[in-house]
């Protein structure tokens, strides 16, 4: 039975809907956000930051936000916030971002000096220090400027990043999943993407303050709605969104239908009664992965084909793409000839054949895409259309899965074995579990996962 898989309508409270690439932090011209943030040691009285979009013609660093606020820095220690003598410091600044196909990138910032009681976050030898945790948005980008948030944001997503004015702050980031979060701007709660970062700063007097565990909750169609930074020195910085004129949207599905985790393996059986009298058994493994790209290997286990293949895949907002593939093999059977020097040696050859992407970043029932990429046409010479059909329960020797069904109509002129209808099923956290290719020469290739 086909199951529901949909992406909620995107409607922005101030007009234009955010594009998919910037929906985790949209920035229409008149968008506003108001945050309230505190630090139990260095800003116990709390600060309200008002954030707006900078629409001046002078912005050349991507898209820019500007904010203003005031920090009341305590002059003494002990006592309750609000009862200590304080000095007023401005908390004003600007910050720039770019939307890339792999996520949100911070390109620049400028602002007032951090609170005078905040530990220095640069080496003592530096005469000028661009590092600060004296505002909400500084806490969002600290240690993770490129990217600030990695996309597509799917289950199991993790990435490394750097930050600080000189890249001296490092972070290990992990997507924890969608969590219901209540903040003053959304008192009834919204589903937000939780991203936890383990942040490290070294070589400065403020290492213990600049290091720690930070969690940012991102509202789809809104941006950051909550930040909590638990510093190594015991300080806790918390920021919450108190108001905005943006409307929260239902987040896209976050199932990961092609996980690229090092060590993940699967053993597949490929049969074709007309051309493969003996089943071909092959093992596919994720050999390496970094920055949303992975190298997969395919090796023969048994059967009439002795093949070894290396493939590189990348996952970006334009989908899962096969960027490189190389196979070598010898076969005891003679498979029909294909054009453009293409050979089917492994299940991955059958899966990637035709055109990219193999899968959309966020699959939506009914979405379609067609051939036309110049590189793909040179490699395969295939024309066709792919469509996300839905979710279906699939049984294979390796188990039972609720799998995403993707169907492609492929035509390689003059080659019926390279033409036909291919249907593939991908299971969350597993990857390809079944493939059926009805070739126009009358044969049928079936690939199924037999062991994990």
List strands and helices in order, with pairings:
Elements: E1 32-39, E2 43-54, E3 63-68, E4 70-74, E5 86-90, E6 93-100, E7 103-111, H1 136-141, E8 149-150, E9 158-163, E10 169-183, E11 186-201, H2 207-210, E12 212-219, E13 223-231, E14 236-244, E15 265-272, E16 276-290, E17 293-302, E18 305-316, E19 319-331, H3 347-352, E20 368-370, H4 374-380, E21 383-396, E22 399-411, E23 420-427, E24 431-439, E25 444-451
Antiparallel strand pairs: 1-2, 1-14, 2-3, 3-6, 4-5, 6-7, 7-8, 9-10, 10-11, 11-12, 12-13, 13-14, 15-16, 15-25, 16-17, 17-18, 18-19, 20-21, 21-22, 22-23, 23-24, 24-25
Proper CATH architecture of the largest domain: Beta Barrel
What topology, given as strand order, has the largest sheet?
Answer: 8-7-6-3-2-1-14-13-12-11-10-9
CATH topology of the largest domain: YmcC-like fold
Global shape = elongated
* Helix proportion range: under 10%
Strand content: over 45%
Please describe the biggest sheet, giving its number of strands, its sense, and whether it closes into a barrel. Answer: 12 strands, antiparallel
What's the average pLDDT? 92
